[in-house]
User: Fold Substrate-binding domain-containing protein from Pseudonocardia benzenivorans.
Amino acid sequence: MSFMRRSAEHGRGLGRSFAIRAAAAVLVAVTAGCGAAHPGSPTGPVPADAGSAGEVAVSEADLQKTVDQALSTGDVAASTLPPLMRDALARASHPLTSAQIDKAYECWKATSCTLGDGPLTLAQADPFGGNTWRQFTKMNVILQALTHPEIGRYVYTDANLDLATYQANLRTLTAQGADVIVTINEFGPAAYAALTAAQRQGVVVTTYLGAMDDAPPTAYTTRVQYDLCATGRAMAETARKATATPGPVAYFDGLAGNPQDAKVKSCVGDTGAETSFTEATDYTAAGTQRAASALIASGKPATAILYSYANTVPSIVNAYREAGKEVPAIISLTQSNAAVCQRAEHPYPLYLTNSANWAARISVDAGVRAAGGAKVADSVVFPLPFFEVTDSDCDTSKPAEYPGPALVPDALTAKMLAAR
Assistant:
């Protein structure tokens, strides 16, 4: 359903000035969303604002610098990335004004705020917002929203890991007139009906991360995620490289029944790797230490532990050290300053990925474009390379909960970490 039609149903007029801007945005957005030749080539500037705030461009060198920071590696060329990802990171390459930084922080502390005078309402339905990774993801959504003058209002909800609350929040955001909802679906098929209902009411739903491979197309407009199966295979291969002798691995889930973990774990098995032990951690330090202690007590062999959340990796190490056991190799998704600094003090093989908070930026862009009537790609699959942690990865100037490079300016990062 087009943005024009939905605006009438919501009882809001666009105004001639936004209609002209939206039409200009469609010309650029359609070519990027349909997989046509990207307007920025390796020899020229990359348009960053798709007509929504005037013609602004970023050089390929600056874009590559942002890509390297986002992925925590210089091994991925910007030219190889999906068009929507390139465009989102191009927007993220532009410095913010002090007024924008102040506005972003004010909005981050609230559950709703006014970002500008545009007619769009952007909502973020978070299944859980209670850790630093989630809060840096929220800031990425806000920062990306600030690059879109079409967005006037931002609304945030936190379901605190409760499915019923998450479903209710989606209904409430729809009733409140949200034009775009960005979300990470951690409830799998149980959330599909609620997501579909939001889209049936004219809301554009875009997802970041989570397992949406098998979701019906009615449940989302664009899903942004890494290749779950490729990641599982990469975890298994990394475990082989990290250990002196081959053997079974343990897999720690985040939430019990999380479809993302289930998919990754199944693809670990597709490589021939044997999983000798599995346990859910609830993404908490206590839950992770409990899982590690259970693994140790089981006596089951594990040459490596595979895990989807680096922030609580220190609890695994603590359990092994308290038991007087050698810490096995740990291969985990995302980053954690606590984990890398602990490893610097007590070395063991540790492999991580970038934190991918920036993935939500792509969802924002896709949602705004779709709300403006543009056709966008129904999926954006981005690379998630692993890297071996070294002592130099420990940033002693940052607190333990810092999730690594998150495309948030240093001035904002400092304020956010101080507020935690």
